[in-house]
Amino acid sequence: MRTTVGIIGAGPAGLLLARLLHNAGIDSVVLESRDRAYVEQRQRAGILEQGTVDVLRAVGAGERMDREGLRHDGIELRYAKKRHRVDFPALTGGRSVTVYAQTEVCKDLIALQLKEGGPLLFEAEALAVEGADTDSPSVRFRHEGREELLECDYVVGCDGSWGVARKAIPAELTRVFERTYPFGWLGILADVPPSHDELVYARHDRGFALLSMRPPVSRHHPSKEVASLPIESFVSRLYLQVPEGTDAEEWGDQEIWDELERRFETEDGWRLERGPITQKSVTPMRSYVQEPMRYGRLFLAGDAAHIVPPTGAKGLNLAVGDVVTFARALTYQQETGSAELLDAYSETCLRRVWQAERFSYDMTTLLHRAPDATPFEDRLQLARLERIASSRAAETDLAEGYTGFPLD
């Protein structure tokens, strides 16, 4: 089998890249180790930056997102029982974010790929990237019980932190920068309307808490646009900061609600609505960057090259930035014969990656209480939050980071 671009991984990055290349008239093959049902049910991020929303619309994958996603024009910060809303459009020239789960993005892009795009092979496990430093790289993979070889002009690894693409770059040529945080997120999904119509980020002496939401499945409301439904139609997604290594089952439902209520408490008597918890899990917190993001004709994208803690909602959006950069560079090479943009791929992506790493780190250290935090550090956190609440410049910096750094 031969193609111009071999794409390893059918997450949102790999699928979007295939769509971008298809629209540019460049052929590709996507290899995904899991089956279609797994990819379409894999729960991950749910906040799309303005740039991600714009790209999905531009490639023809925005119809259902516009119908069922929920536009958010701000977030609320809570600290010392105070509430402060950050108004995104007012601070960024009209930019916003959209609540639309990664699973739904994947469903939309899979449907487009199977209808119009090149081959998308599920249960095709990539075993190795070979010849990455030559003009004819290939991907050895197993599909339907047989080993096969996908010959390419370029390989893009969108296969995550444990995939084969990252391993194909010689360790002596890479630099790794990472930080593991001494806490994680206990996340729940609950059958109860969200207690607020925008995300709430709470800093508390007992630890961080996040109030989020998930839109209802459209089939439950066949005659209405989900975005037009009242907030009561949505279900709640909430998170608690917990010690690193916590087992989700150690927390009882009543205990979770009590702790959430404590951390979200306000001086104006705001109430947290409770309901049945349907899912419960713990997410570790980690920052990671591998440089460079290119080796020969192998290019890394998304989690294969970088990981951010979820506080800044940057993971999926960073992956989108990577594949948009690659698609533009390859299109430029095809049209002009110049590899200038391809040669600059790693440097171009890393500028945006490090800004997102910085923003995610800032949000994490602003809102989470370290296990060994001192009273001095507690007061510094409160001072930082007061600065955001009282300074338009500080508030604008947060709003610009949250809604997304430019894709160009």
Main attributes of the structure:
FAD/NAD(P)-binding domain, 8-stranded mixed beta sheet, 20 strands, FAD/NAD-bd_sf, flavoprotein, FAD, 4-hydroxybenzoate 3-monooxygenase, FAD-bd
In short:
With about 400 residues, the chain is α+β, with helices and mostly antiparallel strands. The protein has a single domain (about 5-405), classed as FAD/NAD(P)-binding domain.
Overall description:
InterPro entries: FAD-bd, FAD/NAD-bd_sf, RIFMO-like. Keywords: FAD, Flavoprotein. This protein has a single domain, classed as 3-Layer(bba) Sandwich (FAD/NAD(P)-binding domain). Strand 10 (138-143) and strand 11 form a beta hairpin. The two termini are 33 Å apart. Helix 1 (12-23) packs parallel to helix 6 (102-116) and helix 9 (315-336) runs antiparallel to helix 11. The chain is α+β, with helices and mostly antiparallel strands and 408 residues long. The model is unreliable at 218-224 (pLDDT under 50). 36% of the residues lie in helices and 27% in strands. The protein contains 13 helices and 20 strands. The longest helix is centred in the C-terminal third of the chain and has 23 residues, at 345-367. The protein has helices at residues 12-23, 36-41, 50-58, 63-68, 88-92, 102-116, 164-167, 253-264, 315-336, 340-343, 345-367, 375-390, 392-403, and strands spanning 5-8, 28-31, 47-48, 70-72, 74-79, 82-87, 97-99, 120-121, 124-130, 138-143, 146-151, 154-157, 175-190, 199-203, 209-214, 235-243, 277-291, 294-295, 298-300, 306-307. The protein has an 8-stranded mixed β-sheet with strand order 6-5-14-15-16-13-17-20. A 6-stranded mixed β-sheet has the order 8-2-1-12-19-18. A 3-stranded antiparallel β-sheet has the order 3-7-4.
